[in-house]
């Protein structure tokens, strides 16, 4: 039986979302392949965080916690959140680079959904989160870090930080669409990352900080994620910090994902 034009339209409308998902996953695979073929792109989420960990632990450990071992327990779960945000930052930089090189001009000539290249790039960068998490936990274990809650607690902390980073990556995608060059995207991203990650209790207890900084900690969403990561790995009340982290993550993606997609459609 042959369908008329009017009868075919609903079928095409139903197939379109599935095609967008299929195309996005295919382009996510392209992004993963590109990353694996150029492993130097992973230096910012492998070597650099490990250098920070060594510097903080062996320079500040004795002064802050009395020993490097105790300080490692304090700083690693929080630093894992910082590493995830640095990994998320690269999403905007890579998108800006691809647009400057004309890669997205080629995508427009393909029979794929217009948003597929954007979604594929965002999903493909999840591999960076996995590599960053594995390298940080592996090296931390060699230094002496020991989780107190078991494998499930560690897994929950990793998944939470990855989900938060994925949601925040839409902020960097927006930067990648509105900034003119990849260098400008990176500069804007660091302006966001530094106060959010270093303006926390990552390197020192909250009680040792001046009052104005403690006020900032109380409204900083990254502080909530760090609290949740510590509770899930080291023990303690985790429900409140986890729920606050999820609420912030969902709020961020609800605001910035539509803005990023709109900016992407104007530029690409």
List the helices and strands and how they pair.
Elements (H helix, E strand, L loop, with lengths): L4 H33 L9 H19 L2 H33 L2 H6 L7 H9 L1 H18 L7 H28 L3 H17 L12 H9 L1 H14 L4 H29 L1
Helix pairs in contact: 1-5, 2-3, 3-6, 3-7, 3-8, 3-10, 6-7, 7-8, 7-10, 7-11, 10-11
Write out key terms for the chains shown:
268 residues, mainly alpha, 11 helices, disordered N terminus
Describe, in plain words, how this protein is organized in 3D.
This protein has 268 residues and is an all-alpha fold. The chain contains eleven helices and no strands. Helix 6 packs across helix 7, helix 7 crosses helix 8 and helix 7 runs antiparallel to helix 10. The protein is elongated and about 60 Å long. The protein starts with a helix and ends with a helix.
Summarize the structure.
The chain is mostly helical. It is 80% helix and 0% strand. Helix 3 crosses helix 10, helix 7 crosses helix 8 (182-198) and helix 7 (151-178) packs parallel to helix 11.
